[in-house]
Amino acid sequence: MSKKILFIHQNFPGQFKELAPALAARGDQVVAMVMKKSSMAEWRKVKIVPYVAQRGSTAGIHPWVVDLETKAIRGEACYHAALKLRDEGFTPDLIVAHPGWGESLFLKDVWPNARLVIYCEYFYQTTGGDIDFDPEFPPIGDESCKVRMKNLNNLAHFDFADAGIAPTHWQASTFPERFRSKITVIHDGIDTRVIKPYSDVRLSLKSGLELTKDNEVVTFVSRNLEPYRGFHVFMRALPELLRRRPNAYILIVGGDDVSYGRRPENSASWREAMTNEIRSAIPAHDWSRIKFVGRLAYPDFIALLQLSRVHVYLTYPFVLSWSLLEAMSAGCAIVGGATAPVQEVIRHAENGLLVDFFDEQAILNSVCELLEDAKTRDRIGMNARDTVVASYDLKDRCLPSQISWIDANLH
Predict the structure, then answer these.
(1) DSSP line for 157-211
(2) Which of 284, 372, 379, 381 has its CA 20 to 30 A from that of 266?
(3) What is the rounded end-to-end Cα distance, in angstroms, of the chain?
(4) Rounded to whole angstroms, how far apart are CA atoms 161 and 175?
């Protein structure tokens, strides 16, 4: 018998981009509420219900509660949209929500008999996590107080959420013990049939440069180029890397906004700040080998990973990026920072090389080692792909497990 399932994500589909349509395809009535204007009434058999906030943040509010008020505003907007949906006759058997922006705070007040399961992405730590990890950017003043306030949204959900799902064991481990027993670890999944090695790949850049597997390519990827993903450390390794590898191209994917952490003090972006910092250490003619490609269309992004001889992935102890697993699926040889989320996936010298996040020299030496040794590079790249196929494959492993988890929570 088909079920009614409601998804909540402020930027749907987000992490539910495969799960929601898979449930709709099997015959469930799937609805997604999304906090943005949308001209789409349906996406892949999922009914789309857009809504918008009816108010903004209060001027002059205490800075510690700005984040909490924002979540209450979003939760209020979702609540009123849910009331309308209920009055139109929709009553979900199951609500699947990403609670991070507060939208799902009041849904049990609309549908008290529906089960609510939440996506457990990260529980902020005042010590031992991302906040105090980088000595170059220590916590400022009352930052720990703001973090505690930020976690109130997570804590509130623990009182009424029936279960949780987390993409990695480390991310699940950040949540308090009293809720951790409700969390099932299943990754969002990587489509290894689409993201796979391809020897004849070609990528044409806007500059007119066309690259193939014959070129020596080193890649770095982040949604936005910022310290949380080690952009500053990677950039500081580039002058010597370009000197030691005179034929290498450095392809850097990412935007100039800030997703996490603070903005640079005297620059418009971290890209500008770090470029200015290392500019004098790189000869003018070598700058042409550093390519900031911005954000790519997904087919071009896959091609970039297929081109890459060495992919560098650095992150604070924080949410693990899809891009690491995508690079591994493409057969990249990984040089990764040895932080807890990365160590869950990478085994040193087996399916990647692990280095200290802050050790620019170790990053440089590891990249050069792999560029110089094709046999080791190929072995590590093949093992990296095998890891993703075995543990993170979308179609054969993760999506079936997610659906089984949904079914277990429907009873």
Answers:
(1) HHTT--EEEESSHHHHHTS-HHHHTTEEE----B-TTTS---TT-EEE-TTS-EE
(2) 284
(3) 12
(4) 14
| Dihedral, CA of residue 255, residue 259, residue 265 and residue 269, to nearest 10 | 0
Q: Which residues contact 17 (CB under 8 A, 6 or more apart)?
A: none
Between CA 221 and CA 202 the distance in angstroms is 18
> CB neighbours (10 Å) of residue 36?
11
Work out the burial of residue 242: count CB atoms within 10 Å of its CB; fewer than 13 is exposed, 13-18 middle, 19 or more buried: buried
Supply angle C-alpha 392, 409, 186, rounded to 5: 15
Strand 353-355 to 46-50 pairing:
unpaired
Q: Are 316 and 134 in contact (CB under 8 A)?
A: yes
Q: What one-character DSSP code corresponds to residue 396?
A: I
Q: How far apart are CA 113 and CA 103, in angstroms?
A: 18
d(CA 178, CA 298): 39
Assess contact for 115 and 161: CB atoms under 8 A: no
- Mean pLDDT (the chain) is 96
Domains and CATH numbers, the chain: 4-189+394-409 (3.40.50.2000), 202-391 (3.40.50.2000)
The Cα 267–Cα 51 span in angstroms is 35
Contact between 332 and 323 (Cβ < 8 Å): no
Distance CA 256, CA 293 (A): 11
pLDDT in tens, 293-318: 999 999 999 999 999 999 999 999 99
DSSP, res 34: E
Please provide residue 383's backbone torsions phi and psi, each rounded to the nearest 5 degrees: -65, -35
Q: Which residues of 70-100 are buried (b: 16+ CB within 10 A; e: fewer)?
A: bbbbbbbbbbebbeebeeeebebbbbbbbbb
* 392's tokens: 């993170």
Share of the chain above pLDDT 70, in %: 100
